[in-house]
Specification:
The protein has 221 residues and is an alpha/beta fold. The chain has a single domain (5-212), classed as HUPs (Rossmann fold). It contains 7 helices and 8 strands; from the N terminus they run βαβαβαβααββββαα. It has an 8-stranded mixed beta sheet, sandwiched between helices. The N and C termini lie far apart (41 Å).
Length: 221
Amino acid sequence: MPDGIGIFGGTFDPVHVAHLRAAEDVRETLDLAEIRFVPAAVPPHKNARAVTAPAERLRMLELATAGIPGFRVWPVELERQGPSYSIDTIRALRAEIGPSRRIAFILGRDAFAEFDTWKEHAAIFALCDVVVMSRPPRREDLTIADIPVAARRAFCYDGASGSFHHESGRRVIPLSVVPLHISATDIRARLAAGRSIRFLVPAAVEAYLASTRLYRSTHAS
């Protein structure tokens, strides 16, 4: 029976179908009971003034995931003060579900390449599995060089699964997802130019963007 919870964070500015398909790939492959979409309030690695208001991004996520089994929007970072640090979100979920139930923290390969700049990144490896998504033709496998230097001694490679095992029992898992080359930046540009975004976002999100006219005027990347 599916168990465990995935955390999928991001600005979701706006959420699009590649986000949803990637989350479904992770949920199904790892047999998770639930994926929680976590919109960031103040992303530490982005200029906060360039990000659409939290309430708008939250509403689009709610519309995109409504009625989808195994998908849930979790506004925990919008309810906290200050920058949205993943370590705080993971600790909040660990406190909610206890020490033994599985947590899978989901991020893309590009973000993982900068993982050593994240707050308390070494502590994250001891609290949950870390799932590193890639889209073909990018390689799926990881090497020890991909693990942040400060944490490498805590890992050993498992050739059978292609993952890295942490001394805590957690893992770093490479996972290939469906190669949908869709970006929020492109969607915003299309809307600003008056072009169609049909089939790039869920229909409910497309309707919301049409009614609110978000991104129709100048909007920073």
